[in-house]
Write a structure and sequence with these properties.
The protein has about 100 residues and is mainly beta. The protein has no helices and 8 strands. Strands 1, 2, 3, 4 and 5 form a 5-stranded antiparallel β-sheet that branches. The relative contact order is 0.23.
């Protein structure tokens, strides 16, 4: 089941964009351009429609997110009982093929 729309953040490279979930998932991404077919589309259905996720395996106690000042670089901090980790998501401006 997709997250609530307010639980997504946008990253992009000027030619396409991805929606990154509060849980560390990419649930929407069209490559190589905005008008291309979606390669990740769980936003419109479920995990079987394609998603990619990096997150702690254990229970997450708190999640905080922010964009680095003046950028579209997203930082998501996951806090667990064992510690915390920061996930950095961005799509660099491209010189050829798209990259996440």
């Amino acid at each position: 089941m997709p997250l609530r729309i307010e639980d997504y953040a946008l990253i992009g490279d000027g030619e396409t964009a991805a929606l990154v979930g509060r849980d560390g998932s990419i649930d929407w991404l069209c490559l190589p351009r905005f008008d291309s077919a979606a390669c990740f589309a769980a936003l419109l259905g479920g995990p079987e429609h394609g998603r990619w996720q990096i997150a702690p395996a254990g229970e997450v106690l708190r999640v905080t997110r922010r964009y680095r000042p003046g950028t579209m670089v997203l930082e998501t901090e996951f806090e667990t009982a064992e510690g915390s980790v920061v996930l950095v998501d961005c799509m660099p401006l491209r010189n050829g093929a798209a990259d996440v």
